[in-house]
Amino acid sequence: MPRPERERRIGRTGCWRAWALAALLAVLTIPPVAVAQESPSEGTVSTTEERVEIRPDVADEEIAARLTDILQATDWFSRLGVRVEDGVVFLTGTTGAADNSDWAQRLANRTDGVVAVVNRIDVEKVVNWSIEPALNELRRLAEGAITAGPLIILALLILPAAWITAGLVARLVRWLLQSRVRTPFLRDVIARAAAFPVFLIGLYIVLQVAGLTQLALSILGGAGVLGIVIGFAFRDIAENFLASLLLSIRRPFQSGDRITVAGETGVVQSMNTRSTVLITPEGNHIQIPNASIFKSTIENETAAAHRRDDFVVGIGYDDTVADAQDLILKVLEAHDCVVADPPPMALIDQLGASTVDLRAYYWFDASQVSWLKLKSALLRQVKRALTEAGVTMPDSAREVIFPQGVPIVRSEDDRPKPGSTGIEARWPLEGTEPEVAASDRDLKPDSDLLKRQSASRVEEGEADLLDK
Question: Could you tell me what percent of the chain has a pLDDT over 70?
């Protein structure tokens, strides 16, 4: 064949090869999403970005031989096959890990003369019955424990030391506050508040030595955040605790006091960190939350030494008011339980329908005398004195007027007999009120009786915060 004709054929062949190569590149450069949708048998296709220089104008056979030698040297692949056509590398075979297949693909992409890589290497799921990985993990953990041994020993030394030091600080604070703070509960709260930072410092030192600086700072910063979160979550409990703390400081009442608070009246039995227990005159136990007590008006009937009470006596309009007042004052001044200062009084309260009402005021020691028993005794003695003096004490009467009068007709049996006064007493008039009755002998308050009845009851297993 003449040389020009052969050159024309070679030129046409090279042109067709160039067009074929361009078409192959157009197919191989499809976006990754489209490639990922191909079936596993087609393999993964990628184009080259970086090259490993071998030498210029390398042949397909040399690329295949070079890649085969490298991949076989790793001993990661079985049934390995490397085929190169016009710079396109086709990889086949099996391997035990997906990372090995990816590595082989990246290696082929970086090889000089490679324009595209078709990766058909299958990844086999091999069941490993060996316990070597578990042994390696145990070995790694043992080595880590040996490495952290000094830090563990240091923590075991510092943390107990910090705990003991915090306890000593708490005892020292309690001893220093023995004469300044009389409430044991308040002393205990202050002591714990002073001892907590000591233990926190020991914990921070352990974390700092262990290299956990950020954790140490997080614990210090998170302590305040945790306190806020707990405060919101247990708001009622925290409110009652703070109220009990403030009540222990202010002490508006003591055990045995008779108080009226939150609509309830009774004798104070005890107070814990949650509530205050009252004993009603009927003997019932009433638990009132300390927060409600702190925010309510407290009426303490036994806080002051003396207390005033009063009662009303009605006398007739025909009696002398001044004489009745003098008789009432003599009875009040003569009684041992009525104090002389302030002096008792007997004043006109109002003019009733049928009586002149006199109100008697007197003072007594509420801690030693029951107001109910004393009032009963004074009323009995005032009634006796007024009766003996001839002072009338009429009841409320209603006047009925008959304009035409009421005719009276007597039978023969109703006429008075000779020597008769016409008045028949329905009870003996010679009987008099005794000066001292049996009920006047015991005027002690009922608070002692209520305390004895409730002495065996323990409220929630907590100590009484009202104890001195």
Answer: 66
Q: What average pLDDT does the segment 205-209 reach?
A: 74
Contact 101, 95 (CB under 8 A): yes
**For residue 175, what is the enclosing H or E element?**
helix 149-176
Instruction: Render pLDDT for 355-407 as a digit per residue (tens, 0 to 9).
Output: 899 999 999 888 788 888 889 999 999 999 999 988 988 876 555 566 666 67
Residue 110 is inside which H or E element, if any? none
Give the number of other Cβ atoms within 10 Å of residue 335's Cβ. Answer: 18
Angstrom CA distances, 453 to 92, 176, 274, 439, stand at: 96, 38, 23, 22
User: Per this entry, what is the length of the chain?
Assistant: 468
- Do residues 246 and 256 lie in contact, with contact meaning Cβ atoms separated by under 8 Å? no
- Map residue 296 onto helix, strand or coil: coil
Distance between terminal CA atoms of the chain? Answer: 129
Q: Which residues, at least 6 apart from 71, have a Cβ–Cβ distance to it below 8 Å?
A: 77, 80, 82, 104, 107
Task: Give the span between the Cα atoms of 455 and 448, in whole angstroms.
Answer: 10
- Rounded to two decimals, the pTM is 0.46
**Strands laid side by side in the 345-351 sheet:** 306-315, 356-365, 345-351
Question: Residue 272: phi, psi to the nearest 5?
Answer: -115, -170
What whole-number distance in Å separates Cα of residue 230 and Cα of residue 323? 71
**40-55: average pLDDT:** 53
Burial-class residue 326 by CB neighbours within 10 Å (0-12, 13-18, 19+): middle
Q: What token pair was written down for 112?
A: 């000089």
Q: How far apart are CA 40 and CA 101, in angstroms?
A: 13
The Cα-based distances of 265 to 257, 283, 374 in angstroms read 11, 11, 20
Q: Helix, strand, or coil here: 261?
A: strand
Q: What is the C-alpha radius of gyration for the chain, rounded to an integer number of angstroms? A: 54
pLDDT at 10 over 60: no
* CB-count exposure of residue 154 (10 Å: 0-12, 13-18, 19+): middle
- Rounding to the nearest 10 degrees, give the CA dihedral for residues 43, 49, 55, 59: 30
For the record, the structure tokens of 166 come out as: 């915090």
Q: What SS3 state is found at 405?
A: coil
Residue where the block lists tokens 């009338």: 392
Backbone dihedral angles phi then psi of residue 203, each to the nearest 5 degrees: -65, -40
Q: Give the Å distances, CA to CA, from 186 to 175, 180, 245, 287, 430.
A: 13, 11, 7, 22, 66
CA distance 163 to 175: 19
